[in-house]
Amino acid sequence: MKKTVRKSQRKSRRGGRSKNGGKILLNAVLAAVVAAAVFFVARYVADNRMENFSEKYVLYVYPDMTPEAITDSLCSGAGALREGSVMRSAARENLSERARPGRYVIEPSYTAVYAIRMICNGWQSPQNLTLAGTIRSKGKLAAVIDRQMMVDSAQVAEALDDADFLGQYGFTPENVFALFLPDTYEMYWTASVKDIFDRFKKEYDAFWTEDRVAKARRQGLSKMETSIMASIVSGETLQKSEYPVIAGVYLNRLHKGMKLQADPTIAFCYDYTLDRIYRKHLKVDSPYNTYKYAGLPPAPINVPPKACIDAVLNPDTHGYIYFCASPAFDGTHRFAVTYGEHLKNAREFQRALTARQRERAMAAS
């Protein structure tokens, strides 16, 4: 009887230990599940709900960029707060297969997954394409576009010399400068050469309103001839305030049947390689030589600013026929009605120039 009681007690103790062990194991499993859930929820929140960047950053994604290069640039440029979130999001969104070239503005408020989705879906921000300053060659024009857009300068240069391509827009390789109106335009960084030319043609058509066309006719000019005259005015001065008066001078000469005798056209004949124009240069046989041939040259000699075009359409009314640089060397000019007045102005400028050169020579010795 006693043995039976002892066996029963031992079984009871073993059963209690077994039940306690099961509870411990169950609690451990539950704790692991909860920990895993907390871990994955924390990751989800970090990747999908939390701001992940410390500063605004413009990310350029090129066609040949690897996903590693993209995420490295994103993390370093935007100051990623949690790089792991960026890497996980890149893997989850399949960045290696879905990355699209573009210009992406990353804001500090963006989550990692949103930034990656921008790149995968091509949610670009527009780029400002600005034409400004003096553009006197196709190479310079192509380089200006190249610096601001994804297209290569060689592609742009090729288009600028492609007669068939330019013919779609009503221009030729010779007069294509007239198509480009200096200003700032919003377009996507990934725009193709055709996209860019399409946009400039749209802006050109919008600029040439009926009012401007009518003003050109009143001056006896076509749209192209207006741009040609504007390019000469642009070549003469950087002073915007002088555009209308210089435009008036050249229109006076043109309407009187005089040769324009514009030095910028001579500079164009020599591809702008001359430091100074001498009499021998005026003999160059070129249709752009306005000392040799009357009337306007065949095409613009640079990309004229809109203000120059409007100056030709709205010139100052005066009797000036001549002008020369001011002896003040401030970029302005002196104007004259008669040749005698012009010679007087020219002598004053030459005296000032000689004195200036003498002073510089003495300072250098």
What can you see in these coordinates?
This protein has 15 helices and six strands. By secondary structure, the chain is mainly alpha-helical. It folds into three domains: 24-124, no CATH class; 127-207, no CATH class; 210-320, no CATH class. A hairpin with a 7-residue loop joins strand 5 and strand 6 (333-336). The longest helix has 47 residues, at 2-48. The radius of gyration is 36 Å and the shape is elongated.
| Cα-atom radius of gyration | 36 Å
Number of domains: 3
Q: In total, how many beta strands?
A: 6
* Portion in helices: 40-55%
Q: What is the global morphology?
A: elongated
Question: For the residues shown, what is the average pLDDT?
Answer: 91
H/E topology pattern: HEHHHEHEHHHEHHHHHHEEH
- Poorly predicted regions are 34-49
By secondary-structure content and strand pairing, the structural class works out as mainly alpha
Distance between the termini: 132 Å
Number of helices: 15
Strand fraction equals 5-15%
Largest sheet: 2 strands, antiparallel
- Strand arrangement, major sheet: 1-2
EC number: 4.2.2.29
Membrane topology: Single-pass membrane protein
Subcellular location: Cell membrane
Keywords: Cell membrane, Cell wall biogenesis/degradation, Lyase, Membrane, Transmembrane, Transmembrane helix
